[in-house]
Amino acid sequence: DADADADAGATSSASRADSSPSSGGDPLLSLDHIVFGIAGSADLWPRRREFLRLWWRPGAMRGHVWLEDHVKQQQQQSTTTHNATSSPSDRRRSSSLLPPIQVSEDISRFRYTNPTGHPSGLRISRIVAETFRLGVYHDARWFVMCDDDTIVSPDNLVAVLAKYDWREMVYVGGPSESHSANTYFSHGMAFGGGGVALSYPLAEALTGMQDECIERYPKLYGSDDRLHACISELGVPLTREHGFHQWDIRGNAHGLLAAHPVTPFVSIHHVEAVDSLYPGLIHLDSLKLFTKAMKINPLSFLQRSICYDRRQKLTFLVSLGYAVQVFPHIVLPRDLERSEVTYIAWNRQGHRNEFDFDTRDSYESVCKKPILFFLNDVWRNGNVTVGSYLRARVRDEFKRRVLCFPRSPPLHNVKQIKVLGNPLSEKWHLVPRRLCSRINQTSDELLTLVVGECKKRSFGSAADFL
C-alpha cells in the first residue's frame, strides 16, 4: 500500500545515506570493484588490441574481451608490434598484458528482423549479462561495457562512478554527439561504444530478464538500443555523465578536444575514424601521446582555461594535454565554450544543427584564426604537470602577414609554450569549475602559462583580465 511504499522509500534513502563513501561504511571505490566487458570482433582484434594496450592495466583491472569467434593463430601474430620475429614467449607475455578473451554465446536462437542492421547487435547487447553469468565477480560494484576501439581513463571512471550508490540500480553513460542518432535511437540511451556502466543490482536484474526481453524487440537496430529497451523495462533512467564520449564523428577532432566539458574525461570511441590527434604524428603514436598526458594527470586532462593579454589584445585558450590556442583578438568565454566545427558527424553531415551540443563555425578571416600550439611532450616535476606545446606550422602564415598588416601575427617569435599544471583537489569534479591561468613571458621564444583551480574569490578569466 501507499504507506508501505513510503516506509520502504524512507528505508532505502536511509540506507543510501549510510552507505555513501563519506560515511565510512564501505571501502572507497577502486578499479578492483569494476568489471569490464569489451566488445570486439575476431577479424579486427589483431589491430584494435593496440588501442586497448594504451589504457588497460594488467593486474589492476578485471574483465574480458568478448569476440564472436576464436582469433586465428596467424591473425594473433600479424600485428605491427608482434611480428614473425617475436618469440613465442614474447607473444605469450604480450597477450597476458591484455584482458582474457571470451567467445560469446550463440545468438542464432534470437529473432533479428531489422533490414539495415546486423545480428551482432544481439551478441554485444548480452555482454554484461554473459560477464555476470561467469559467476566470478561477486565482489564487483559496477559492470562497464565499451568497444575495442575506445580509449578509457580508468582513474576518471572511478572518480565519476564513486559519486553514485552502487547498491541501487544505476545506468550511467552518455548519448551521441549526433542529433540524428539520438533522435533515431533515443535521447535517453547510453551509446555503448563510449562506455556504459551498470551497477551490480542493475546488472543482476538485467541478467535475469534480458533473453526474454530482447525477443520483444526483434526490429531494433543494434546492441545499445536493445540494452536500453530492457533497462527501460526495469524502469531505470539514464544518468548522463558528460565525460563519456561516443564520438560519432569523422575527420578532424580538434573542435571537440579543445572544448571538452568541465567534467572529468572518461572515454572516446571511434578513434580509427578521426585524423591523427597531434600534427606530425602517425595515428597510433598520436594516441600514445594522448594517453600519456591522460595518465600523468587524469583529473585535469583536457580541462580548459582562458586568460588574456590585455595590452596586446590576445586570448589564450588552454586545453590541458592537447593544445594552446592564441587568438589575435579578445574572444569572450561564452564563445570559447562552444566547439568549433572542424569535424563531420558519423552520417557525414557537417552542419551545426546536426550536433547536440553548442557549436560555432570556424573563423573565415585569416586575421581572426588562432595560432595553434600542440602538445609535444608532458612530464611531472614533483606534483606539477609540465607540458611542452610547439607552434604548429601553417600554410597561410605569409597570407596572414600580408592581409593582416599593420597588425603582425601574435607571438611572432614564440616557438614554444610551456604549461605548468597545478594538481586539482580530489573533490574538484563534484562541483567542477573551469580552471584559471596566468601568463609569464619567459623569453622571446618561450612563453609560460600556469594553470590551476581558481581561487575562491576569483571572478574568472574575463573579469580578472579585462
TrEMBL record:
<feature type="region of interest" description="Disordered">
    <location>
        <begin position="1"/>
        <end position="24"/>
    </location>
</feature>
<dbReference type="GO" id="GO:0016757">
    <property type="term" value="F:glycosyltransferase activity"/>
</dbReference>
<feature type="compositionally biased region" description="Polar residues">
    <location>
        <begin position="73"/>
        <end position="85"/>
    </location>
</feature>
<keyword id="KW-0808">Transferase</keyword>
<protein>
    <submittedName>
        <fullName>Glycoprotein-N-acetylgalactosamine 3-beta-galactosyltransferase 1</fullName>
    </submittedName>
</protein>
<feature type="compositionally biased region" description="Low complexity">
    <location>
        <begin position="7"/>
        <end position="24"/>
    </location>
</feature>
<dbReference type="InterPro" id="IPR006740">
    <property type="entry name" value="DUF604"/>
</dbReference>
<dbReference type="Pfam" id="PF04646">
    <property type="entry name" value="DUF604"/>
</dbReference>
<keyword id="KW-0328">Glycosyltransferase</keyword>
<feature type="region of interest" description="Disordered">
    <location>
        <begin position="71"/>
        <end position="98"/>
    </location>
</feature>
